Amino acid sequence: MNYHHMNRHPIAAGQRILLCDSIASDAAKHLYWATHGEWREYDAPWEQIWTPLTKEHEDQIVVKFMKRFSEEPWVPHKGATIIHQDYPVGYVTRYGRERYPDVLWAGIDICEDGYLGMGLGTEALRLWVDYLFANSTAHKIALDTWSLNHRMIRVAEKTGFVREGMERHLIQWQGQWLDGIHFGMLRQEWEERLAKR
Hints:
- This protein is an alpha+beta fold.
- Helix content is 30%, strand content 34%.
- It has one domain: Aminopeptidase.
- The protein is built from five helices and eight strands, in the order ββααβββαβαββα.
- A hairpin with a 2-residue loop joins β3 and β4 (87-97).
- α1 crosses α2 (55-70) and α3 packs across α4 (150-159).
- The protein starts with 9 loop residues before the first strand and ends with a helix.
- Keywords: Transferase.
- GO terms for molecular function: acyltransferase activity, transferring groups other than amino-acyl groups.
């Protein structure tokens, strides 16, 4: 599918990628990503879909995506599609926890295998962090990952996140105990990095 002329609203622009609002045709991509891609092996793989989807499950994924797509826009956005050369390659997300109203949690997935290892994730996360801080009053942005996700750990560190802690042997997956790794970036740290660019 050629995405070149689709009507997308950019949220943030980098040198090689755009973060854009999702559009209706992205539902097919999200449906494909639900069962394809190396990313599923590292982003909480026990929660991923490893068997072919039934028609009912496909419909549920599309309905969920379309509901999110048609909701009133949030500021800051709850997520965005990562576009590289007019092609969707993944997405960024953000969520909060009611107990911690001054903290936003960020997430990112590059879902197309052919675009891994190109630095797109680092650029996307930097753009997303810039966007989230610039469009909120958040004091901190947090990011959680697993000890098996070496790419995400490198991306977080290159983006300027500080490793804040680790929960050892939090979950067992395929015979291996995994640690939960916690990262954070304070607004002041972001502002200092921004001033140096």
